[in-house]
């Protein structure tokens, strides 16, 4: 059974940091593209970041988080991380990770649509609140 479990969310002040985890089971995370999404209260789920499911582990970011967030992978832990620095109030929302097995020559950036992106395993999300 393929499963992703997010953790690490919480309440943080503006300017603070959090590290989210996306732990995989039932598959090797280094063979899956893993994509992070954020869903603010009352709004649509949107792409934040992703990491390729191959040894090069290429990454991609939305403009809203570029330079502040870093996605990484620990193959031994079978976990993908999202380090979030200099958090802003607009970063508030539920953060989801999702995955899709890698293809022959695809990249994670091809699967950033949360509805039609072809992602076949999802976590249940972890909430992040940025507030003073």
| Separation of the first and last Cα atoms | 40 Å
Helix content: under 10%
Largest sheet: 7 strands, mixed
Instruction: Kindly state the number of beta strands.
Output: 11
Mean pLDDT: 96
Uncertain segments are none
Gross geometry: globular
* Backbone CA Rg: 14 Å
Give the helix tally: 0
Structural class category: mainly beta
Strand content: over 45%
Secondary-structure element pattern, one letter each: EEEEEEEEEEE
Keywords:
single chain; 7-stranded mixed β-sheet; 4-stranded antiparallel β-sheet
Give a verbal description of the structure:
- Helix content is 0%, strand content 46%.
- It contains no helices and 11 strands.
- The protein has strands at 3-7, 10-12, 18-25, 32-39, 46-51, 59-61, 69-74, 79-84, 93-101, 121-122, 126-130.
- Strands 2, 4, 5, 6, 9, 10 and 11 form a 7-stranded mixed beta sheet that branches.
Describe the structure concisely.
With 132 residues, the chain is mainly β. It has strands spanning 3-7, 10-12, 18-25, 32-39, 46-51, 59-61, 69-74, 79-84, 93-101, 121-122, 126-130.
Walk me through the topology:
Elements: E1 3-7, E2 10-12, E3 18-25, E4 32-39, E5 46-51, E6 59-61, E7 69-74, E8 79-84, E9 93-101, E10 121-122, E11 126-130
Parallel strand pairs: 2-11
Antiparallel strand pairs: 1-3, 3-8, 4-5, 4-9, 5-6, 7-8, 9-10, 9-11
């Amino acid at each position: 059974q393929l499963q992703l479990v997010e953790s690490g969310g919480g309440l943080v002040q503006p300017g603070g940091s959090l590290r989210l985890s996306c732990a995989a089971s039932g598959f090797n995370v280094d063979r899956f593209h893993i994509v992070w999404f954020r869903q603010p209260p009352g709004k649509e789920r949107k792409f934040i970041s992703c990491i390729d499911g191959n040894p090069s582990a290429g990454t991609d970011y939305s403009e809203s988080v570029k330079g502040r967030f870093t996605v990484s992978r620990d193959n031994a832990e079978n976990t993908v991380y999202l380090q979030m620095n200099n958090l802003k109030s607009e970063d508030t929302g539920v953060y989801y990770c999702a995955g899709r097995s890698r293809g022959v020559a695809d990249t994670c950036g091809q699967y950033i649509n949360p509805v039609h992106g072809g992602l076949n395993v999802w976590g249940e999300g972890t909430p992040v609140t940025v507030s003073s």
